Amino acid sequence: MEVKEKIIEKIFLLIALSSVTILALITFFIFEEGLPLILKIGPKAFLLGEKWIPSKGSFGIFPMIVSSFWVTLGALLIGIPLGLACTIFLSELIPPSIGILLRPAIQLLAAIPSVIYGFWGLIVLVPLIQNYLGGPGLSILAGSLVLGFMILPTIITISEDSLKALPPSYKAGALALGATHWQAIWRVLIPAAKSGIVASVILGMGRAIGETMAMIMILGNAVKLPSSFLDSARTLTTNIGIEMGYASGDHRQALFATGIVLFFIIMSLNTLAIFLSRRRTR
Amino acid sequence: MTKSQASKPKQISSAFPPSPPPSPLRGVGKVGTTRNRGEGRFGHWVLVFGDYLGFGIWNLGFLFLLLFFLFGGACQRSKAGITVAGSTSVEPFAELLAEEYMSHHSQSRIYVQGGGSTAGIEAVITHAANIGMSSRNLTDGEKKLYAVTIAKDAIAIIVNPQNPIQDLPLEQISEMFSGKIKNWKELGGPSHSIVLVTREEGSGTRESFQKFVMGKEDISLGALVQDSNGAVRQVVASNHNAIGYISLGLVNAQVKALKISGVEPNLTDIENGKYTLVRPFLFVFNEEPAGEAKSFLEFVLSPLAQKLLFKEGLVPVLKKIAQE
Q1: Are the beta carbons of B201 and A53 separated by less than 8 Å?
Q2: By Cβ atoms counted within 10 A, which residue in A56, B12, B144, B146 is the most buried?
């Protein structure tokens, strides 16, 4: 019996290790493919260059880095207020009968494939923006709106968990001291759960930066520095997604190099989120 | 390729013994009770071995069957068949032709892959593919390859049907796409800024457009970039101020193809060379084709296949079909 359990244990260990190995292999692969190009044209020309014309050998991804941050910022401007309001409502104010309906509905938001979000944005939001605000319609504004909705489930579920994890004495204490329900929520519960809420926002940010399919459909993919929320833009992920099919040689390497930049951004965001949520559980 | 993969699980289930599949938990905690199942010494140890690994003897049998079919499938696939790879503009047509060809020659397998014109030609040179598909002419370095034009495709400049403009000279289209002309007013249209729609870097359609229309000029970096003919058409169809370019075969009622200096993109004017935005669809071989590749090429150039390509909106290389 013991031998058998040992063997099973080892098999499971191997399986667990294989997933880590795959992560390591992916990392190794994108660095092996992308680094030579960054070194060839110089990190400064790559990161701060403003022209992306692969057929003429200019590989500057600065407009895409800026666009990525614009789109993410826009998504957070929409996602944080909505998400926070929804969290407070769900965990403190909601009548149980509505909660039964609302919670699965929010979880369903996370299950909708991103291409459906993209299609909805393209068919509904883009013409609206084009008609009422001008510009091509395929714009940062449209992308931010869609992304704002896409990150809602991440923000809501994690920050609701962190609100629920608070000791009930916090709320009871505040109420006993004469605070109203709203004062207790806003002055006591939210500040106490702050680190968890911040972590949820950062994870949502990671999702926003990484989103590709919906953004290819909505952003318009023009490679230039955006000057307003109505401009078309191309993010780091969509640059890879849209050009991978045909790229070869230096062009292909430049796309992997774009992946390296993305890798660093996502890694630092996730590290920050883990760090912040650890502090919460302390 | 997808066909053979899809058929694999079916083969396995039909060959599998009709006994019910054992529960995955069978091995756990049953070593003692399984002993009486084995007849001889050897059978006993096989059973125990199976139990130690966590699955019963039937699962072992299943494993062997699976391996058998995997290897069998792999051998079958490498035995016959040719690979056609390259331009994604040609790919849908090649897939259609391959399907038609295979329905006539049940022994043959033709695998069609995308990847782009350059990648396809590269694949032929390195013998990774038997036939390369290209939607552009060969460069000087590639001239030693054996290329056959299987059809021609025109590029149409499209605008929204609401746009009053019907006809533009090439120079003005080039000036629009390089960003020098920014408003439809300058061309006699309504006062709206022009929304340019282009294809992504590396696309064969973009390469041809660059060569035919732009020349040395760059396409404006402010242009919207879409990654397929269909996506370009969708954007132009939904935006009154947009202009883009797609394969003529894919123009439909949602968009309007412009005349170029008075020449309409239709079959007659493409045939007599008046409409100049025409690119060849090539099949590229390492040397004069033989065997399966030759027979596929002959099929593609036959009246039946050419008629098919014509129906899909391409310009056939057989004159007769074009005139019918």
Answers
A1: yes
A2: B12
CA distance B190 to B172: 16
Name the residue facing A130 among B31, B231, B239 (closest C-beta). Answer: B239
Asked if residue B266 has pLDDT above 70, the reply is yes
Nearest to A238 by CA among A68, A55, A119, A78: A68
Question: Tokens in use for B251?
Answer: 């123009």
- Give me A246's structure tokens: 């045909």
Amino acid at A105: A
B169 close to B262: Cβ distance less than 8 angstroms: no
What long-range pairs does B270-274 form, CB within 8 A, spacing at least 24? B270/B152, B270/B154, B270/B315, B271/B315, B271/B319, B271/B322
Per-residue pLDDT reduced to its tens digit, B134-187:
888 888 888 888 999 999 888 999 999 999 999 999 999 999 999 999 999 999
Q: What is the structure's pLDDT at B137?
A: 82
Distance CA B24, CA A238 (A): 43
Establish if A263 belongs to a structural domain: yes
For residue A10, the distance in angstroms to the closest alpha carbon of chain B comes to 11
Complex-level ipTM = 0.82
Domain range for A277: 62-281
Q: How far is B72 from chain A (nearest CA, A)?
A: 27
Instruction: Report the residue of chain B nearest A241, measured CA to CA.
Output: B227
Higher per-residue confidence, B313 vs B324: B313
How far apart, in whole angstroms, are the C-alpha atoms of residue B210 and residue B206? 6
**Cross-chain residue pair B225–A222, CB shorter than 8 Å:** yes
Tell me the one-letter amino acid at A199.
Answer: A
Name the band, by pLDDT with cuts 50, 70 and 90, for residue A88: very high
As a whole number of angstroms, the distance between CA B173 and CA A251 comes to 28
Model-level pTM? 0.75
Which segments of chain A are extended strands (E)? 52-53, 58-59
Beta-carbon separation of A127 and B114 below 8 A: no
DSSP A162: H
Per residue in B10-59, pLDDT (tens digit) is 444 444 444 444 444 444 444 444 444 444 555 555 555 545 554 454 55
A176 assigned to some structural domain: yes
Number of separate domains in chain A:
1
Let me know if residue A44 belongs to a domain: no
CATH number at residue A112: 1.10.3720.10
Residues 6+ apart with CB under 8 A from B129: B83, B84, B85, B86, B113, B120, B123
Find the mean pLDDT for residues B302-317: 87
pLDDT in tens, B98-127: 999 999 888 888 999 887 788 888 889 888
Partnered with residue A3 across adjacent β-strands are none
- Judge whether B213 and B173 are in contact, CB under 8 Å: yes
| Phi then psi dihedrals of residue A255, to 5 deg | -70, -40
